[in-house]
Every structure is written in structure tokens, then in C-alpha cells.
Amino acid sequence: MPDRVLLVDDEPRILDGIRRTLHGLYELETASSGAAGLAVIAAAPEPYAVIVSDMMMPGMNGAEFLAKAHDASPDTVQMILSGQADLNSTIAAVNDGNLFRFLTKPCEGADLMRAMTAAIGQYHLVNSERELLELTLNGSVEVLTELMSTSNPTAFNRTERVKALVNGVLEVVPVADVWELRIAAMLGQVGLMAVPVEVLNQVRSDSDAGTDPAALEIYRSHPALASDLIRRIPRLAQVAEWVAEQPVTMREATRPPEDKPAAKGTEQPPITGHDIYAAVTAFSVGVDAGLNPGRVLADLVASGRYRRDLLDTIMSANAHAVVRRPRQVKGEQLIVGMQVNQDVVTLTGLTLIRCGEILTDSMAIRLRHFASGVGVVEPIDVLA
């Protein structure tokens, strides 16, 4: 399928000339102004590979248009094709629009073709690198979370809750840094793997009477541990900062904010991935501590640390999360996603997995093999 290119110029003859030069090589779309170009970008089913824009256009010049186009489609490669431009406009186009090439009119067809070939190559290079990074990193993270499910069910279950809430929020609230947010949701609780099971079992919230201060201090260290691990992965420094800042107790989650909240009636800034992660982890801390979700919501709202509209969305996502119901099944009926409500033990007394674990694909296959071979104690209590 040909690469998609958007041409923006207020002179129809220029658009016709470029169209003739590039005919048959790319899927071309045109717009006669910066505003029309932004509308075309917004309506496009997928990003354009390259945008070629005139500089001097009425209403919105090329620099202003490309800066807005970059916000709407940050991976698109941008070029200016202009017959006249002052120095300040040229500098703005380069700095604000992330310009790849600046061509002057009249532009020879061969020069335009070379520039387009280079721009298309740049677009594919950037996207191939991102795709490789995302596939490699996501695959590695999935392996790590599956290992977490075996070694530390508490960490895995909390990760599953955070992931479910984040996914629920993203169905309603689009954010630019969605990739970083999903990685944070998957890796943010990995520090719990270093916390002894007896500490996890003891600690619910730091307001609990009788909580061992030493155990609470160990528990509080898990965001820093996770952050240190994540920081070693290239391009995840921002995720590491989010994870390090996450609250681990309701007292921390409801601490008054240091920044003064926006006054009522003022326009709210767009919700970011950081906003979502902070609010979701705060909500999860309260629910994991055994508090009623409504009570958690009220306490978080009262703290002033989180946006009310975002908290309402999280509450809705929590209400629509899958509710697990108790069942009894045979070993051969165990499938991915079930949460075992007892230790699963072979007929020879070997414990295969502990109560509370959520079955991954590999775990379910392994248990079914044991059930059909050595045999397991049945029926098995599960939540599904």
C-alpha cells in the first residue's frame, strides 16, 4: 500500500504541479490552508507519513500549521516548500515543527523526489524502531509478569487490578503517553517481589493497629525498588519516576498536595498518563487495604490530590471489572484467568501453586498435564 502524503498550499497550481510529480508513487491528499490541513489530519484513519506545507499562507503560516500538526501526529515527517520566508518564520518552522527539510520554490522535480524519498525513509525508520522496541519490551514485560504470578501472587494480583483499572480509564480518556502508562501498569508493582510474603500478609495499611514498623518500612520500599529496576531499561526514565512516586498506604495517598489546586471555573489541563497512574494506584491502595471503594473515592476526593472527573472514571472502571464467583472444577477444567481459592496439590502431596494465584496460560497447561498424569486433589475451589 502506498505511503500517505498530505500537501498543503493555498495555490492550486502548486498543488497540481506536486501532484503530477509524485503521481503514482504515494497516496496524496491536499488542503488549501493550515486550518483545512489540520481538519484533514484529524479525520484521517491513520497518520500521514509526510506533510509538505507552504510557508506563507493566509490565516495560519506554515510554521504555525506544522507545530499544530506535530501535536496531532507526532510521528509524521514534515517538510516546507516555500517561495518566500523570513528568518524568524524559518527558525520557528525548524524548532516548533520538527522540520525534516526546507525546500524553496521553484523546486526541481528531481530535488522534490529525493527529499520525499528521504522523508519516507525517515518515517519508516522511526516507526520500525518504535515497533521493535514496543514488541520486544512488551514481550519481556509479559514474561516478567508471568514469573511474578508464580513467585508472588500478591504482586501479580495487584498488577492485574492496576492494569484492569488503567484499561478501563483508557476506554474513556485518551492520553498521548498511553504506551508509557501501560508499561507502568504492568511493571509498577514488581518491587513487591522483593518483599517477604510474611510482610505482605501483615501489612494492610499504616493506620492498622499493631503493624510492625519494621515490616511497614520494608513494604514502603517497594516503589523505589521497582523504580530502580525500570530505570535500567532504555527510554523508561519517565515510567520509573511515576512508579517511584506511587503511594503505598492510604495515608500517603490522601496527603494534601503541595501544589495549589486549580480554582473552580478555570479550564482543566488535559489528563496525562501520570495523572491516571497516580490516581489508579492510590485507589488500588485503598481497595487492597480492605476499604469500601466508595469510602476510598470519598477520601481521595477530599484530599484534593486527584481530579474528581478522573476518580469518577476509575470508580466506574472498578464497578465494571470482572467479578469472580466461586466455583468447583476438575483439574482438566482449569483455564487461564481463573484464581485458585486453595492450594493445588498432587495426589502425591506436591504443592503445585498456592491459594490466591491467577492462572496464566502456561500455569493452566501445566496443571492440566498434572491432572491427567500424576493426578491432583479434586475438586478445586476457584474464583472465575
Q: Can you put this structure into words, describing what you see?
A:
The protein has 384 residues and is α/β, with parallel strands linked by helices. It folds into three domains: 4-126, Response regulator (Rossmann fold, 3-Layer(aba) Sandwich); 152-319, Hypothetical protein af1432, CATH 1.10.3210.10; 326-383, Molybdopterin biosynthesis moea protein, domain 2 (Alpha-Beta Complex). The protein is 53% helix and 11% strand. It is built from 16 helices and ten strands. It has helices at 12-22, 34-43, 62-72, 87-97, 109-151, 153-170, 178-187, 197-202, 213-220, 222-231, 237-245, 250-253, 273-288, 293-303, 308-319, 361-372; strands spanning 4-8, 27-31, 50-53, 77-82, 99-104, 326-329, 339-340, 344-345, 351-353, 380-383. It has a five-stranded parallel beta sheet, sandwiched between helices. Strands 6-10-7 form a three-stranded antiparallel beta sheet, with no helix packed on it. The protein has a two-stranded antiparallel ribbon with strand order 8-9. Strand 1 (4-8), helix 1 (12-22) and strand 2 form a beta-alpha-beta unit. Helix 3 packs parallel to helix 4 (87-97) and helix 10 packs antiparallel against helix 11 (237-245). It is elongated and about 85 Å long.
